[in-house]
Structure prediction request, 512 residues.
Amino acid sequence: MTALQALQVVQATLRGKDANDTACAWMAAIGRMPVAPAAALACYRVDDAAQSLYPVAGLQVPVRELPVISMADLEHPAVYCLVQRGPCLVSASSVSQPSVQALIAAMKSGPGLLAIPVVDVAVPRAIAVVLLAGPAEMLRRFQRSPEWVGLVGVLQHALAQGNAQLRIDRVPAASSEPMKEGADLIRSNLVGQSVPARRLRAEVLAAADSRLAVLITGETGTGKDHAASLIHRASTRRDGAFVPLNCAAIAPELIAAELFGAVKGAYTGATSDRPGLVAAADGGTLFLDEIGDMPFALQGTLLRVLNEKTYRPLGAVRERASDFRLVCATHRPLLESVREGRFRQDLYFRIRQLTLVVPPLRERRTDIPLLVNRILARLASGSGNAAIPISECAIRRLQQHDYPGNIRELATLIEVAAERATCNGIDAEMVELLLQKPLTCAPAMPPEPMIGAVPPDHSLSLSEARDQFERGIISSRLRHFNGSRARTARSLDIARRTLLYKCKRLGLGDAP
Prediction:
């Protein structure tokens, strides 16, 4: 049988089949191909809870003899290839994990095991994995063959159709309305008609429809936190809490207490039990912003919590359970941090089961008019006035800027322009002035207390000196913003919750 005939056979066999029959027919088609490996093959699917891989088809190996693979086993070739979305070839002699050895024993393989992910083309994410066992060089040749590439394409489309059918069969008709509401929510809150904007909406919707952990990457100011919120609000966990924590905006020694809480007497000043954010996220979504800044010592604890869904508050004896979905974000290149030993590789693989890249504003300039109008409408809604007009020349000038601060920079610029607008609205001359002299766009900050300007007090401990410095900075900002906690927190680039905690700890009270 020629390669073309094999592809024709599998395409004909797959019509009208469900997902499992699709995989079985596909396995049989591989056996008919002239370049097929001589040893065993197996097809695994990700279960609905995204907790394990279960076998659905085999060639030269009975499905009942194939072991179930836990998705928490991140070093398993099958899980690794799904997380990495790339093939993984290992030697049977180089692995010692019992789960891998059990699979090799079941497949009665030769010296090589090749794991290849299969992507659902309808919502781009890995949903299955094909395992081929045999001599390593034969597996490499088979992977590079054009027949194999064509067959993988057929399987991807077939499984995508099978997934859609399974969703229709298993989900009650009434549940289609929340799914439509989620799509409408994302469409109305992620503005833009550019290709990057449309792609981002599709990826956010796919992430909302999944139970896997999500890692959102992108430059500062692109709206990673906004994307994380939309993923939660459009998901089946929408009725639960969305609990954010910025790992870069809180002192490293406080992150554990913020996440896991503490029991009475756990530390000085702990006069009552205090639940943490992990407990608050039970049934909802935990959003860890700037995950790349999480202390290395805490990363192992977080990995264990993610794998076991249990945690222990500070000072507690018993562990407690929390069912939450994890969404993380970072502007840092985490792979570099992994290579440099500053971020755990196993945690990296665990949090990036799905990845989502938020594009910078300079890559979607055609969306700037829509974004500007949305910002002006929001400002008008907040003030109760009519939206301030903006000229076409001003819009064109805004589209020429590179926006190193992305959407956050654009929003700040429009807010300042709206504050200074005349009866004619915002014109190009005003925009030009703000873009060329950004320091004039915001009120001048008062001089902040500097370490060198404060006479050293050699009686203070390091923590006391740090508290004294933070107290001076926060007090100065609060006075500048007339006591506004929200504006003060934004100027310090910390969460309002963190600012309130610091004010309480530093004894700043309610007055600035």
Observations:
- The chain has a mean pLDDT of 77.
- The CA atoms of residues 440 and 460 lie 39 Å apart.
